[in-house]
Design a protein that fits this description.
It is a single chain. The chain is mostly helical. The chain has one domain (2-158). It has 3 helices and no strands. The longest helix has 137 residues, at 22-158. The protein is rod-shaped. 0% of the residues are buried.
């Protein structure tokens, strides 16, 4: 008891509370208060982190939007480029078909012209041969006329 009266008021209160059974609850309260303070600190940290994440979320949303726009435009560009290539291939195929038809027509025309040239050369050769034959006959007829003229002159002088 002496110790009880000689102790400080806080120590006396602790002894009384322990005897009354309140001390156990007070310790639980202090423990709970400590845990509550730790939890409050954790909640404050969580709030700070949440606030920071929300602050970072806006630029990320903007980047996501830009990335979606870029992907959409990239897909559209690829589709347009593919359509342009298909169109170009179709045009080149049409041009190739047209040129092949023109080549065939030109080749046929060339073949026909060669036949015509061959025919004309044959006719020319034939006409040259006929010309030479007629020149020979003309020369023979002229010689015969000359000979007969000379004979006729000779008979005319004599006669």
């Amino acid at each position: 008891m002496k110790q009880f009266f000689n102790s400080k008021p806080e120590q006396r209160r602790g002894i009384i509370e322990e005897a009354a059974g309140v001390y156990k609850y007070k310790q639980q309260k202090q423990k709970a208060t400590g845990e509550l303070a730790v939890t409050t600190d954790n909640l404050d940290r969580i709030n700070d982190i949440t606030h920071e994440l929300k602050r970072q979320l806006e630029p990320l949303e903007e980047q996501r939007s830009l990335a979606k726009d870029y992907q959409r435009l990239s897909d559209q560009f690829a589709q347009v480029e593919q359509q342009a290539l298909v169109l170009e291939i179709t045009q080149l195929d049409t041009e190739q078909t047209s040129l092949q038809a023109e080549i065939q027509t030109t080749q046929q025309t060339l073949k026909n012209l060669k036949k015509t040239i061959d025919h004309l050369e044959t006719q020319s050769d034939q006409l040259t041969a006929v010309d030479q034959e007629l020149d020979g006959k003309l020369t023979a007829v002229n010689d015969e006329i000359l000979t007969k003229s000379m004979k006729a002159e000779k008979y005319c002088r004599c006669g």
